[in-house]
């Protein structure tokens, strides 16, 4: 996922958007419109915090803004401990290490590859489990058949911020003496049963990358109610130091710096606004796209808290007349850079493709979603006018499916000449 400079791309005038750019028209947007453009919040408050940091000359090493960020985060989520990290991937690695996982760990392939890398980096064997085609998260029905004497844990993902089936996963973990951890990279501000994500399992790890609804430029956090686990995590993120000259654990450098904490606090100040904007955008996309054949927008439980950070669309190629990839390629010509998350699936990336070449055979739902899901631009850098234009372009493409497909075939042929 990429971060781009702020600013809203300028849309073309209505009379210039027909026909599709692929068919000789003018692109709907003058500049590329990315998925995951950063939310900024109050620049004035951010600059004030940055000035405070410079005046104090305390730039890192558990500074006052990191401490404030951790306290606000733990209070909001409702957990005893929030340990800020330099990024979510390091947070996952330290959380996994501190929890004592080894051997084999059950994990979805339908996730950003960092989830799986965090295991493999520590020579833990990821065991890929299929997902539920409705929730897009680990299917509890498939887990127990994968448990072996080497299995030590389950690393589940709250995909798109929709919480995994935590109760069933916890019951399986308890029954088999496994540790349950969560990659909560998408799920800040989301809840299940009225309980905020962050307090499930032994621990959970958030990402506060620039593309996330709450961002720290780069950052992350591990949250837990386990006092001893939290203590180990704090030691491990600071080289294992338990005192000025005393090292008690094998550690790394996972500390968040003060500038990242300043951005995190500024994001938290505006988080309600960010989420409200995301929800309005998600509802507009849903209303426009679900009127089109073969398209469905991933739903969320309206009774729960949700951040609406991802606009996820499943494409039924037979009904729509175009495949997911054809729609993505058409949008690229319009300067809309939709993403094929999590294509092609972690199991088809290296080193897993070589280590487990037959994994796809037990991942039918993962395989299907990797071929049908796309995500669309949202967030505070995107306007409702832009969303209307994107949906209009998709609708036009479906109406002119034969011409779109023919032009894409021609374009592919041109590139091979």
Task: Give a concise summary.
This protein is of the alpha/beta class and about 425 residues long.
Sum up the structure in keywords.
3-stranded antiparallel β-sheet; Aspartate Aminotransferase, domain 2; 14% strand; alpha/beta
Write up what this structure looks like.
Helices cover 38% and strands 14% of the residues. Helix 2 runs parallel beside helix 8 (258-269) and helix 3 (88-98) packs across helix 4 (114-120). The chain has two domains: 43-129 and 136-269, 3-Layer(aba) Sandwich (Aspartate Aminotransferase, domain 2); 271-416, Alpha-Beta Complex (Aspartate Aminotransferase, domain 1). Helix 6 links the parallel strand 5 and strand 6. The chain is of the alpha/beta class and 417 residues long. It has helices spanning 43-56, 64-77, 88-98, 114-120, 140-143, 166-176, 227-236, 258-269, 271-289, 317-320, 324-333, 352-355, 364-370, 384-399, 401-416, and strands spanning 33-34, 81-85, 104-108, 125-129, 151-157, 179-183, 191-192, 195-196, 203-207, 220-224, 295-297, 311-315, 336-337, 373-376. It has a seven-stranded mixed β-sheet, sandwiched between helices.
């Amino acid at each position: 996922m990429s971060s781009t400079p702020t600013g809203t791309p300028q849309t073309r005038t209505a009379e210039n958007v027909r026909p599709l750019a692929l068919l000789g028209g003018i692109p709907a947007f003058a500049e590329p419109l990315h998925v995951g453009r950063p939310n900024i919040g109050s620049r004035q408050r951010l600059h004030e915090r940055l000035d405070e940091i410079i005046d104090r000359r305390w730039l890192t090493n558990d500074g006052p803004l990191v401490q404030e960020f951790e306290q606000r985060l733990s209070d909001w989520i409702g957990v005893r401990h929030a340990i800020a990290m330099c990024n979510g991937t390091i947070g996952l690695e330290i959380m996994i290490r501190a929890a004592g996982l080894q051997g084999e760990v059950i994990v979805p392939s339908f996730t950003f590859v960092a989830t799986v890398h965090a295991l493999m980096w520590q020579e833990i064997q990821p065991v890929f489990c299929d997902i539920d085609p409705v929730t897009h998260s680990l299917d509890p029905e498939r887990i127990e058949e994968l448990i072996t004497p080497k299995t030590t844990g389950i690393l589940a993902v709250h995909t798109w911020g929709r919480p995994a089936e935590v109760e069933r996963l916890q019951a399986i973990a308890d029954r088999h003496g496994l540790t349950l951890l969560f990659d909560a990279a998408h799920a800040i501000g989301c809840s299940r049963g009225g309980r905020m994500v962050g307090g499930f399992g032994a621990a959970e790890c958030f990402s506060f990358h620039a593309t996330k609804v709450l961002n720290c430029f780069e950052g992350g956090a591990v949250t837990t109610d386990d006092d001893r686990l939290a203590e180990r995590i704090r030691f491990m993120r600071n080289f294992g130091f338990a005192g000025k000259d005393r090292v008690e654990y094998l550690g790394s450098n996972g500390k968040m710096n003060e500038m990242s904490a300043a951005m995190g606090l500024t994001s938290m100040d505006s988080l309600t606004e960010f989420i409200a904007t995301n929800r309005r955008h998600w509802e507009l996309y849903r209303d426009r796209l679900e009127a089109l054949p073969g398209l469905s927008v991933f739903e969320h439980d309206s009774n729960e808290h949700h951040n609406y950070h991802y606009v996820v669309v499943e494409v039924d190629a037979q009904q729509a007349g175009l495949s997911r990839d054809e729609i993505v390629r058409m949008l690229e010509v319009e300067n809309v850079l939709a993403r094929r998350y999590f294509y092609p699936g972690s199991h088809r990336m290296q080193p897993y493709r070589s280590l487990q070449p037959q994994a796809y055979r037990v991942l039918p739902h993962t395989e299907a979603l990797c071929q049908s899901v796309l995500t669309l631009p949202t967030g505070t850098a995107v306007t409702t006018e832009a969303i209307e234009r994107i949906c209009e372009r998709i609708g036009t493409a479906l109406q002119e499916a034969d011409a779109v497909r023919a032009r894409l075939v021609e374009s592919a042929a041109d590139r091979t000449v």
